[in-house]
Design a protein that fits this description.
The chain is about 70% helix and about 0% strand. The chain is mainly α. The longest helix is centred in the first third of the chain and has 29 residues. Keywords: Membrane, Transmembrane, Transmembrane helix.
């Protein structure tokens, strides 16, 4: 199989990691701002931002990996792996 035979990735498959990073970034910034407003200490706010970003990124990635693919995703995965089942036989 040459490099030209690879199926193109769908847009939502490509953007999925970006969604996880953005959501983790938003949670981190929110935590950092709350910490900054409560303590007025920039170092503590930066530490809170970093910890919240890393923890939320790891948790979101683990949740994404634990999701079971539905029927459409399973067919798409089989096509990408080259394990396409034979087409169904019509009853006619």
């Amino acid at each position: 199989m040459s490099s030209n035979d690879k199926p193109k990735a769908r847009r939502e498959d490509v953007l999925r990691p970006v969604e996880l990073l953005v959501l983790s970034g938003v949670l981190g910034v929110f935590t950092g701002l709350i910490t900054l407003m409560a303590t007025r200490d920039f170092v503590l706010a930066a530490i809170g931002l970093g910890v919240a970003f890393i923890v939320s990124l790891v948790l979101l990635a683990m949740f994404a990996l634990s999701m079971k693919p539905d029927a459409g995703e399973a067919v798409d995965l089989d096509e990408q792996n080259g394990d396409t089942p034979p087409p169904p036989v019509s009853p006619h």
